[in-house]
Amino acid sequence: MAGLMRQAGDVLLVVDVQYDFCPGGSLAVTGGDEVIPLVNRLAQSFAHAVLTQDWHPRGHLSFASQHPGRKPFETMPLPYGMQTLWPDHCVQGTPGAEFHKALDVPRAELVLRKGFRREIDSYSAFFENDRATPTGLAGYLRERGLGRLFIAGLALDFCVRWSAEDARRLGFEVVVIEDACRAIDTGGSLAAARTALVDCGAKLVPSLTLGCA
Ligand SMILES: [Zn+2]
Questions:
Q1: Per-residue pLDDT averaged across 80-106, rounded?
Q2: Distance 1 CA to ligand 1 centre (A)
C-alpha cells in the first residue's frame, strides 16, 4: 500500500489507553489492554506521537451516578445533545485515570487531556461533545505541520470514532489502525462506528499494512 508509506507529516494519535478502559477498570473495554503491545511497536515507527487522556472532575455529568434513576449505558439528553451515561471513570488524579504502565510511547510530544469540564463530555480529541468547543489539537497539529493522523486506542466506537470524524471534518487525512483499537459496542455502536468511519473518508487498515506488526 504505497499510500501508507510514512510521510514527514504523519503522527500517531493514541487515544485513552488508561486503566479505567482496560480489564479491571471501571469502564473496561473488552481486550482493551491487548492494544498496548501493538501501540508500543507502532510508536517505534512514528517520528511524532500524541496521547489523549480522558480526565474528568468528580461528579462529571457523563456519569450515570449524577442522574438519579439512571443507569450506565443509558442515553439521555443533555443541553448539547444525546449523551451516553457511563460508570464513573477516569476521575482526575485517581489510579483509573493513569495511563497503563505497559504503555510505552517515550517519544509522545503532547498529552492532550479532555473531558475536564463537568458539564460536557469530550469523546473527540478535537472537540467537546457539543462538537463546537475546540480542544486546541487542530491548531497544534497545523502549527507543527502534522497533516495525517494514524489513530489507535480506546474505544473504537466512541473516542476513536469521534476523533477520526472530527479530524476528517477539519481536513486531516485519517488512518484508523483497526487491530490497535478495541470497542465498547453498546447499542449497536460498533457497527455504527464502522459505517461512520467509512462515510467520513477515514481509512481503516490493519497494522500489518503499516509494516510494523
Ligand atoms: Zn470519559
A1: 97
A2: 35
